């Protein structure tokens, strides 16, 4: 019997019996109680010794604070961990952040989830996809439904993952949490630079190469500096095509450049400017077909992806002595070409003689964002942050199915159905979204007790014009739907107690939400029976409403006085109402609807220990149970069914050791293991599209030396060459049973230097 499977089964059985809400609450209470007792016994020396180690500073509440002072569940991925992982984008961080999971459909097509509130299903490019996790690059919101941009993780201070609703300060996209990519600021005093070269070989595939570099130039000492960075990543492939003979077809590359400047003309005013250009393209999705050998496909259509974006921001910060005034202005422009194979459809539904061709989606987005906020800085028991936010998003989306020669073979011109020549389907969405909000948080200290209250008022409005045509649509139709709009309030209440300077306990209740939207028309000519069934049940295929969660959590976090042990433990309970779910019709069309309620509850735990000089041990994990509160017939789902794409158990553990080999040479080693439990693609096994994804384990390592500002290291990612599935696919007659898997074993070398 496979030992990994036995261990997984035993652990899941243990979890199901032990991690009940009452026992978890008792466990957390016990931890809190014992921590409090230890703190009372050692509080005096703790204050004296706490200055001996460097605290982790975060800006999760839009002010700089020690992570131990922020009463929410935060995971900080350091620059060192990013380097050890060799992480090229935020998807590479999924296995090391408890509770952070994803619906993955290839690079640039990832939807993040936190705490089991999943965001899967439907078309990647659907303009009505609403994210549940907000993604920020510094001050800039960059999340985008099912097409979250995956920027190269270079020259970052850290990545902050804020778990739980962040709707007060970050808005609707942060329904269950926020991921913040925090860049290094330009250095006003030192000329400096760094560079990195890396090369590796993928098992069963080709080579990776990457080059990254930056330079920081103080133009006016202590007043003006410019920081310029660039990167080029040549990603190897490992998917072969047995039909065409093509090898390693999913090769791709990322390239980009960033310029940032910091100008401090007076003691009170600072001006930050940044501009980033990023390009990503590949020659095919990392998909293998179940009917072929591992890492092999057998269809001819091209499904390479292309993604270009420009991101700019200007942030002005003015010190009023009693408060800090911040103005952040952002611009985000993105163009995506996202083909996908429909070859199975040619085999099952189209007459012979028509050459298979891919469906091609094109999306152009332009977003303007303005935020203005004021945060107190006085030495007072009452601190506060207030602000206003507005954005405008224009999206033009084309959904095209060009099939050369189709008109002649079928004997009917595409124009008879309102489409361009040789197009079995052609449609577009022209969308404008406008949002504004006012928000505030107040923090009041009463001795060691702190009370936080937050509230956000939001107003959202959407206009959409769409056109659909072609044989597959059955007719040409266009419409300008009435405006979709919603407004409301998003509250939060948090109570925390400092056991000492470095340890606290907290309890929080917070509301999270995401906007609703407007569905495109479903043609009655090809979907009449299914439309009639929805109408009989009282449904509406034109609109879907916002959904929301109430998140309740208790937690304890902190460290000992010298920073040798740090920890973070949280129990959460989420009530999710009016869930937004994608419903698919047999005719090939679908729509989003609000289809019921669910409950998600679980535990997050992270511990870091530094037992001896040079050695760092860390472990983290999550137990998440998300289930439906009632039957949902249109999903073939029943009360108690678990949410798709969410592992019940996941954990990560790592060890890093550094030692001085001689006066000028330091050696280091790092090893990491990540476990991801079973998942499914649908709520219920009764759903015809249901597929199970088995548990998998990844092991990574890096060893190397550092000398005179240089570093040379050897690494192995996925050391034991696990072929775990991160996304199972299968929706006949459109998609054959297939899988996206973890990247095979990759072995390579990295050289880093600086000046």
Describe the structure in your own words.
The chain is mostly beta strands and 755 residues long. The strands form 9 sheets. The protein has a 22-stranded antiparallel beta barrel. A hairpin with a 5-residue loop joins strand 33 (598-609) and strand 34.
Offer a quick outline of the entry.
With 755 residues, the protein is mainly beta.
List the keywords:
22-stranded antiparallel β-barrel, 755 residues, single chain, five-stranded mixed sheet, 43 strands, disordered N terminus, mainly beta, 11% helix
Overall SS class? mainly beta
Q: For the report, how would you describe the main beta sheet? A: 22 strands, antiparallel, barrel
User: Low-confidence runs (pLDDT<50, min 5 residues)?
Assistant: 1-52
Count the beta strands: 43
Strand and helix layout:
Elements: H1 3-18, H2 21-49, E1 57-58, E2 65-66, E3 73-78, H3 79-85, E4 100-104, E5 110-114, E6 133-137, E7 140-141, E8 156-163, H4 167-170, E9 177-183, E10 192-202, E11 207-220, E12 224-235, E13 240-241, E14 252-263, E15 269-282, E16 287-289, E17 296-297, E18 306-319, E19 323-340, H5 343-348, E20 359-376, E21 382-402, H6 406-410, E22 423-446, E23 449-469, E24 477-480, E25 484-500, E26 503-514, E27 517-518, H7 524-536, E28 543-544, E29 547-559, E30 565-577, E31 580-584, E32 590-594, E33 598-609, E34 615-628, E35 649-660, E36 666-676, E37 679-680, E38 692-693, E39 696-707, E40 710-717, E41 725-731, E42 735-741, E43 746-754
Parallel strand pairs: 6-9, 13-17
Antiparallel strand pairs: 1-2, 3-8, 4-5, 6-7, 8-9, 10-11, 10-43, 11-12, 12-14, 14-15, 15-18, 16-42, 18-19, 19-20, 20-21, 21-22, 22-23, 23-24, 23-25, 25-26, 26-29, 27-28, 29-30, 30-33, 31-32, 33-34, 34-35, 35-36, 36-39, 37-38, 39-40, 40-43, 41-42
């Amino acid at each position: 019997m496979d030992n990994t499977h036995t261990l997984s089964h035993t652990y899941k059985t243990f979890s199901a019996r032990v991690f009940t809400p009452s026992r978890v609450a008792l466990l957390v209470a016990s931890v809190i109680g014992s921590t409090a007792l230890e703190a009372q016994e050692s509080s005096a020396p703790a204050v004296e010794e706490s200055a001996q180690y460097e605290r982790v500073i975060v800006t999760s509440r839009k002010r700089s604070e020690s992570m131990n002072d922020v009463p929410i569940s935060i995971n900080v991925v350091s620059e060192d961990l990013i380097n050890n992982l060799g992480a090229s984008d935020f998807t590479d961080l999924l296995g090391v952040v408890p509770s952070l999971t994803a619906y993955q459909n290839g690079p640039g097509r990832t939807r993040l989830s936190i705490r089991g509130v999943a965001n899967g299903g439907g078309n990647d490019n659907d303009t009505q996809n609403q994210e549940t996790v907000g993604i920020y690059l510094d001050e800039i919101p960059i999340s985008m439904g099912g097409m979250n941009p995956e920027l190269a993780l270079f020259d970052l201070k850290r990545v902050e993952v804020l778990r739980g609703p962040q709707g007060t300060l970050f808005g609707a996209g942060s329904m269950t949490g926020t991921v913040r990519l925090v860049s290094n600021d330009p250095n006003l005093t030192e000329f400096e630079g760094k560079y990195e070269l890396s090369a590796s070989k993928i098992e069963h595939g080709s080579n990776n190469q990457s080059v990254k570099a930056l330079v920081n130039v103080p133009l006016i000492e202590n007043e003006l500096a410019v920081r310029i960075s660039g990167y080029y990543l040549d990603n190897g492939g490992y998917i072969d095509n047995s039909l065409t003979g093509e090898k390693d077809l999913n090769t791709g590359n990322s390239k980009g450049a960033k310029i940032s400047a910091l100008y401090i003309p007076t003691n009170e005013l600072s001006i930050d400017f940044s501009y980033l250009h990023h390009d990503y393209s590949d020659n095919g999705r990392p998909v293998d077909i179940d009917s072929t050998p591992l890492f092999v496909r057998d269809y001819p259509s091209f499904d390479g992806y292309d993604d270009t974006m420009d991101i700019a921001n200007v942030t002005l910060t003015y010190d009023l002595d009693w408060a800090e005034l911040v103005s952040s202005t952002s611009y985000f422009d993105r163009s995506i070409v996202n083909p996908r194979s429909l070859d199975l459809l040619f085999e099952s539904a189209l007459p012979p003689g028509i050459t298979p061709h891919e469906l091609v989606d094109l999306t152009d987005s332009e977003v303007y964002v303005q935020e203005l906020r004021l945060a107190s800085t006085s030495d007072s028991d009452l601190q506060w942050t207030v602000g206003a936010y507005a954005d405008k998003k224009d999206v033009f989306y084309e959904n095209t199915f060009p099939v050369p020669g189709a008109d002649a073979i079928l004997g009917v011109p595409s124009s008879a159905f309102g489409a361009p020549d040789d197009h079995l389907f052609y449609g577009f969405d022209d969308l404008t979204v406008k949002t504004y909000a006012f928000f505030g948080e107040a923090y009041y200290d009463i001795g060691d007790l702190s009370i936080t209250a937050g509230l956000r008022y939001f107003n959202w409005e959407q206009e959409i014009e769409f056109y659909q045509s072609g044989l597959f649509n059955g007719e040409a139709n266009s419409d300008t739907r009435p405006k979709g709009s919603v407004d409301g309030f998003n509250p939060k209440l948090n109570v925390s107690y400092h056991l000492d300077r470095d340890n606290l306990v907290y309890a929080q209740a917070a509301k999270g939400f995401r906007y609703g939207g407007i569905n495109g028309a479903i043609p009655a000519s090809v979907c009449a029976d299914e439309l009639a069934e929805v109408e009989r049940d009282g449904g509406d295929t034109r609109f879907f409403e916002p959904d929301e969660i109430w998140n309740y959590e208790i937690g304890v976090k902190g460290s000992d006085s010298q920073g040798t042990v740090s920890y973070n433990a949280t129990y959460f309970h989420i009530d999710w109402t009016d869930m937004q779910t994608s419903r698919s019709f047999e005719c090939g069309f679908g729509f989003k609807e609000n289809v019921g309620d669910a409950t998600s509850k679980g535990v997050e735990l992270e511990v870091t220990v530094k037992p001896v000089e040079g050695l760092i041990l860390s472990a983290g994990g999550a137990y998440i149970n998300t289930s439906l509160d009632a039957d949902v017939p249109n999903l073939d789902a029943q009360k108690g069914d678990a949410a798709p794409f969410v592992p019940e158990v996941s954990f990560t553990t790592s060890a890093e050791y550094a030692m001085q080999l001689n006066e000028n040479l330091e050696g280091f080693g790092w090893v990491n293991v990540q476990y991801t439990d079973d998942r499914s693609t649908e709520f219920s096994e009764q759903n015809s599209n249901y597929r199970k994804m088995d548990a998998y384990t990844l092991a990574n390592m890096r060893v190397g030396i550092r000398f005179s500002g240089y570093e040379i290291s050897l690494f192995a990612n996925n050391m034991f060459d696990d072929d775990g599935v991160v996304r199972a696919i299968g929706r006949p007659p459109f998609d054959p049973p297939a899988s996206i898997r973890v990247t095979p074993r990759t072995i390579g070398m990295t050289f880093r230097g600086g000046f």
